[in-house]
Predict the structure of Orotidine-5'-phosphate decarboxylase.
Amino acid sequence: MDKQSLFGQIQKKSSFLCVGLDTDLSKIPPHLLNEEDPIFSFNKQIIDHTAEFAVAYKPNIAFYEAMGAKGWESLQKTLDYIPDDIFTIADAKRGDIGNTSSLYAKAFFEKMNFDSITVAPYMGRDSVGPFLEFDGKWVILLALTSNEGSQDFQVLNTEGDKPLFQQVIEKSQQWGHEGNMMYVVGATRGEKIKEVRALAPDHFFLVPGVGAQGGSLEEVAKYGMNDSCGLLVNSSRGIIYASSGEDFGQRAGEEAAKLQREMARLLEKY
Amino acid sequence: MDKQSLFGQIQKKSSFLCVGLDTDLSKIPPHLLNEEDPIFSFNKQIIDHTAEFAVAYKPNIAFYEAMGAKGWESLQKTLDYIPDDIFTIADAKRGDIGNTSSLYAKAFFEKMNFDSITVAPYMGRDSVGPFLEFDGKWVILLALTSNEGSQDFQVLNTEGDKPLFQQVIEKSQQWGHEGNMMYVVGATRGEKIKEVRALAPDHFFLVPGVGAQGGSLEEVAKYGMNDSCGLLVNSSRGIIYASSGEDFGQRAGEEAAKLQREMARLLEKY
């Protein structure tokens, strides 16, 4: 999916919501456990109830990988079930030497047909480059994450008086462009988003920190939005685990709708 | 496997060789393609012929993941086939927020029973910590890799006039110890290994850069060895693809034996 189509979906749905499919067998409603593929059954209902409010789905690959071969089957079925006009993100945080990154790229882009994948920057250009060689596919590069450990290395001051995440954003703009690269930007403080937005005015940001990880949607929009919206804001647990009963799908839809209404307001305002 | 047992194996075999199982369907001998599980058939013969010369096996997870559910089955069968006294490394380069890293740790340490996993440091302490909570299991943290892109961020000068990889090594020693943490140290230049050895005198290094990636075994031993050897030197393509004929297993064994003899000499010398 290209940038224009993504922005088109955002306008059509008045939403920049990404639903995180961090589906965990120990957290899904117990009545699903008798089904042949409980993970897919869960995801299917979540998708049925949230698709009108979301512009992206982001399965965190760890949740599927933890279940072995069966998990990969559930993931593929989920991906095939997501409507074609919704952007898909493999939250995999991969990154390896060139020929290995090529394999990961083929696995996620060709074999599974994801639109994008999250990538870790530590190994540099030749670890990221192979993901950029696929037409219509995207790299979402970790820049400033929302976890506590982001303070260990990402904000270290480096050459030119620049924090490490700034080096990542500046250098990577020589590798890709706003049509094939996004950045993960944690939403813990509005002023930080403003700082990152100044470094990459035209790129989309994937913002993981709204909801369970804390972070204000208003601040994210105020400081992060650009002319093409430029934001995909993720919510996982707050939506998919809104209820542990048989009404989980419906309740997920209600939570997604609530966020979508707020996003519609913010798209008007900023 | 604990540090003492690993060193015991190194002494017993006079070897610090790690064989990289980067098994690629497009590179294995064509006569194997008719087998039910060509990847496992290949790995089985490689293991049969190299086990007496190697102290570790390192499947690069990308090669298996690229084949979907079937690849994970081949990986599990391979892992089950590796003799118990040989150290196993999941070359996965994972790293995510805490609860997700926990899932990856369970997948690789409990479900698949690897001894260790390679982890990327960018997300900091709470992304690495979950891997350190398993008795007898190891984190192998990316410090200084051997690819060209290692120059993009890993060697950037940071606070205290320290390159980023030094920050990674220093900080991570507060998270783990030489009994549960190793470092990936690229073998392109001896002086660099010397520099890293000074930062982590007692830790094992996994050295990926000997063989196809260039790098001298003599230099690695001279500058990197410590009282417990402290080195696992990996060779992948030079061993497993030594021949593309029916003699591939035997030829792999010969290449492994050659490296082992050189390592025996170096273990005597340094």
